[in-house]
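Researcher: I'd like a structural prediction for the single chain below. Treat it as a standalone chain; there are no partners to consider.
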Amino acid sequence: MDAADLPQRVRDEQTTELSRLGSSKSLYADTGGDLEPGTVLAAAADAAHHAAETFEGWAADGDDAVADAFADVAATEREHADAIAADLEAHEPGPAPAHLEHLAGLERDLDRVGGLLGWTLVLDRKTGQRSGFFTGQADPGTASLFRGFGDDHEAHRDGALDLAASLAQDPEDLTAVVDAAVATIGAAYGEFVETLEDMGINPKPVC
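Model: Treating it as a single chain, here is the predicted structure.
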């Protein structure tokens, strides 16, 4: 295994979790069942805000290239949060999603790189749902805004792989990156399941 293999390795281990996080039920959970444009935007703005805060914190206590990479991600997510919140009136961020709380507790660079990777994979699923929602609302501008974030998320993921390649000294280091990514996805999935179950909804797809 080398760094380029990491995303697929994580996807293979978290196929079910990522699939469900990319479902319409995920958007329903994120908004507490309030599928209104403002609520969807608020949930997305909150997530981007807390992501920026987390990565700013990592950049502040990192070294050189690692700190620079986290600072770049933080700046991009701050821009995303501002762009989303521009359509909201006097928005104040709410609590951080569980997977971002999980990220905030990571301390080792390798774990943070894995957390960053896992976060991008979760974000891919959630952003797709948000874009689709606004397409369904006949709001192509907002749908396009979220689609446009995809390029930035891919760049974040590429950056995580570059960091993994530079930091890893042996195969066990890459395994640690995978483990951290899986744990991050697990935190997001755990909150998804708990939220839906509290609402009396089965998180599993109904065939």
